[in-house]
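Database export, one record per block. Field names are fixed; values are copied verbatim from the stored entry.
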Amino acid sequence: MIKLKNLLGAIRPIEIIGDTDKNILSLESDSRKVGRDSMFVAVRGVTTDGHKYIPVVASAHVGAIVCEEFPASLTQGITYIRVADSADALGRLAAEWYGNPSRKLKLVGVTGTNGKTTTATLLYEMARLEGYKAGLLSTVCNYIDTTAVPATHTTPDPLSLNSLLARMVEAGCDYAFMEVSSHAAAQRRIAGLCFAGGIFSNLTRDHLDYHHTVENYMNAKKSFFDILPAEAFALVNADDKAGAYMLQNTRARKYTYSLRTDADFRGRSVETRLDGTLLMLNGREVEVQFTGRFNAYNLTAVYGAAILTGFNPEEVLVNMSRLVPVAGRFQTFRSPSGVTAIVDYAHTPDALINVLDTIREIVGAAGEITTVVGCGGNRDHGKRPIMAHEAAMRSDHLVLTSDNPRDEEPEEIIRQMKEGLSPTEMRHTICITDRHEAIRAAIMAARPGSVVLVAGKGHEPYQEVAGVRHHFDDREQVAAALAELS
């Protein structure tokens, strides 16, 4: 229970109608959850507008309603608060409601097209190796110290987000690391949070179904750096042309990392294998349990951010070798017969290119690569032919299959992927809609010494078909198929 007038100190109301000296029992943005003396924030969402539910929540005897437009008729006893941006107001009110937990933690956010999950998770693991309690907010799973909390979104809604941060504070966490998605930044889910640092990994085509243009997508990510305070750090990839753009308006202390040019934190792969890499970090060699150029970038970012966060540089270097890959990120499986399968979350053209180029670099021109890949339904249609083409160019055999078709027909998604293939590429491509059969067929046909990449879903333990999620785990499918080869 909080006094309404105390909550309102977190936002800048344009107009208030009604009494502010009243108690608020709960803060909600879902009209189905309101009750007597709740505060309801009407947010304009992607699929619905909370403003249309104002008459419904008014009949539930809520204490206050925050909105961008007052309704035509006002209900007596309810306090109406008009704001310029109700999504922004929700974030700030949520932070205030939970006691501004982000101010009691060293909170570091990671944004970019690829590498967010790996970077945030490894920083969480690094903090724990350093002897601290820490929290994690990620695509795979959220953690409050060692307690796992299932993740439903890359970045939760403001109420869930601040609730989780408050639980981290209560558990005695010193640090928290989180993925900041472009959706979350654009929808102001991170409004009201106090960040100690921000990291930018890279920017390639993704989520254009939502942002419509690459420029909008890039600006959504940049908005995260625009809100960083002066005492925070901003660490960006100097090898990505969007890196410098992220820093243009930030007040934070500016740092860079790179594999190709001078930077504050410089990484270089000395030797790469399927099970690890000898990595050079600021002139010091360290053996890590990761492979691929993309992971060299992730680890260089982790190294730099860990130091900027305040960890001892020597201890950070030692602990780099103790970090382990994140579930579903270049996760390797091997059969006694010599077939290697890799499960990876790569679901953008750039991520797929990075993974396949890494595999080719390791196995050489004589090595045989089979790629199993699909594209998600109800998402960016434009990347489908690109994904197929890039996979075909870098694979000896290509299997196009279903990913999460959601509300689309999987056969139609595959047809759109095939549009990116030349007649030559089609000759080493087959289409198997059933993902289970596609994975099994690829592994059964593999020869000793060859590599099968299963891309797109990574850690996800489900497949979403016609709006229903069914249990399906690429890692389980791969392990079962490899067992048949034994």
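Remark 1: The radius of gyration is 24 Å.
Remark 2: The chain is about 35% helix and 25% strand.
End of record.
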